[in-house]
Amino acid sequence: MDNDFGKLIRQARKDRKFSQRELAKLLKIDFTYLSKLENNRADYAPKEEVIRGLAKHLKLNEEELIFLAGRIPHQEEDLLKQHYKDMPALFRRMRENPEFAQRVFREASDRDS
User: Fold this and answer.
1) Of 93, 101, 103, 108, which residue is most buried, by most CB within 10 angstroms?
2) pLDDT tens-digit readout, 49-104
3) At what angle do helices 20-27 and 48-58 cross, to 10 degrees?
4) Is 31 helix (H, G, I), strand (E, B) or coil?
5) Where's the HTH cro/C1-type domain (predicted)?
């Protein structure tokens, strides 16, 4: 998956044959805001419901799109708040030990399957 939110939604919109105005109308947002999102020029990340709408209409994975947009899904916020003191150590260990990071991601992906 492309790791650029704007490029991803622009390409998916074009693949699904939506104009910016058509998709914006479905999402109940202004097409100029959609254009800013596609060009990574929005002043702020879209609300989670807009991202979920984009995912629905563009047939994209909601959770991946939320993370690419720079948001954390609401259900994950509680987990992060509970373990906020442990997060820096976890990230540091993942950076220092790529094999550990790969194992964590692989196990997480296996559970999602």
Assistant:
1) 101
2) 999 999 999 999 998 899 899 888 777 878 888 888 998 999 899 999 999 999 98
3) 130
4) helix
5) 9-65
In whole angstroms, what is the distance from residue 46 CA to residue 71 CA? 8
**Residue from 23, 65, 70, 76 nearest 44 by CA:** 70
92 and 52, same domain (yes or no):
no
Residues 6+ apart with CB under 8 A from 73: 48, 63, 66, 67
The gap from C-alpha 44 to its chain's centroid, in whole angstroms, comes to 14
- d(CA 96, CA 54) in angstroms, rounded, equals 35
Boundaries of domain holding 65: 5-73
Is 12 inside any structural domain? Answer: yes
Q: How many domains does the chain have?
A: 2
